Amino acid sequence: MNDINTKSKRNADLRGTALLFLLFLWTVWFVSFTARMIFSPILPLMEDEFHISHTGAGAIFLFISGGYGLSVFSTGIYGGRFGYKRSIVFSLVLCALVFLLIPFTGSIIVLYAFSLIFGIATGIYLPCVIPLITDYFSENHWGKSIAIHDSAAPIGIFCAPFLALVLLGFLDWRHIFTVFGIIFLVLAFLFHFISGELKIAEKSRQSFKNVFKRRSLWIVGILWIFAAGSNIGIYFIAPLYLTKELHLGIGHADAALGISRLGGVAVAIACGYLADRFDLKKIMFANLLLTGAFTVALSLASPEFVAVVLFFQATFVTGFFPLSLVMTARLFSEEERSMATGFGLMMGVLVGGGLVPFLLGIAGDLIGFRAGILVIGILVTLSSVLVFKLDGTKENG
Fold it and tell me: Which CATH number fits domain 13-389: 3.40.50.150, 1.20.1300.10, 1.20.1250.20, 2.120.10.30?
């Protein structure tokens, strides 16, 4: 594939070579996301081996998300100058090196350091791939192409617990990271030869200031915080909540966690198609409102029904992310898109995916996980009205 930065080369459909390229990007995102999620189902084993508290275990996600959040933001600013393809290849190689070294870790402090580096490495990918997708496909296919690509995330969340259970039947938890490290190396090699390069000119200081003066940027960031907190934040801590507080077995807990993410796959893709046809703001509002309601219900559910409530909660929250990426693409110009995407991701991952599970860990130690989940549900519900404060979008349909 040659350079893909020429507008005339944009693909008007999702067939043939264009579909194969999108599926390859889907595979890269699936592996990258699943690798980040794999920490969760094996967290009880790590907690026991390192003899750490719930708070100490939750801190692993604080370091991953801290590195990820800072990385997506800086990549949004500089990734286009370095080259989006080159940035992604670097990301995959760095992920491989970290995961190949984790099995030799004997200290929780060293594991925290590796978690931080891994977060930095994985944070490079999404701010770089969104400009590649929007440049490769015509605008009337952005919703579908972004949603199909982003469906790798809920599928990765679904697969991670089951993959962990299968691999733990043959390997020590440490060597699960070795398997992923080898896969990352293979993907880096393939990406180098399959993808074309896309670069953009250096952003001016004025352009940078103009983006951060936009009210919509900050609203997108706030929405990402609450949505990511109710999705990844709860996902990371759910095995501890289900096993330590609700006293379910680890096999039952991991199965419930994995199955809960299955419905999100269909919702994520459906939301992408809806975004190309209907009012994007109304769809996002309904999505966040339902997410908040089911998150509140999750905090109140009994052990007998918690798996059912978790399924519906995870199903609806998953739809937010492709909707938000499409919204960001419509709100900001090509030169601003990567920066805006990186900012939203930074806010969501740093706070929602990092600080939230850490705070939930503290809540679990002091008063119980239920109280923390209830607060998240209330905040998500209240944040849904902010969608109507977004401006500058071009609605389809």
Answer: 1.20.1250.20
Q: How far is CA 26 from CA 65, 196, 304, 326, 385, in A?
A: 21, 16, 35, 16, 31
Residue 268 tokens, joined: 């994520």
Write the CA distances from 91 to 1, 56, 345, integer angstroms. 20, 27, 16
Q: Are 35 and 95 in contact (CB under 8 A)?
A: yes
Give the mean model confidence (pLDDT) for residues 305-324.
85
pLDDT in tens, 78-120: 666 667 778 888 989 999 999 999 888 878 888 889 989 999 9
Domain range annotation of the chain: 13-389
26 pLDDT above the threshold of 60: yes
Q: What is the 3-state secondary structure (H, E, C) of 220-259?
A: HHHHHHHHHHHHHHHHHHHHHHHHHHCCCCHHHHHHHHHH
- Residue 88: exposed, middle, or buried by beta-carbon count in 10 A (0-12, 13-18, 19+)? buried
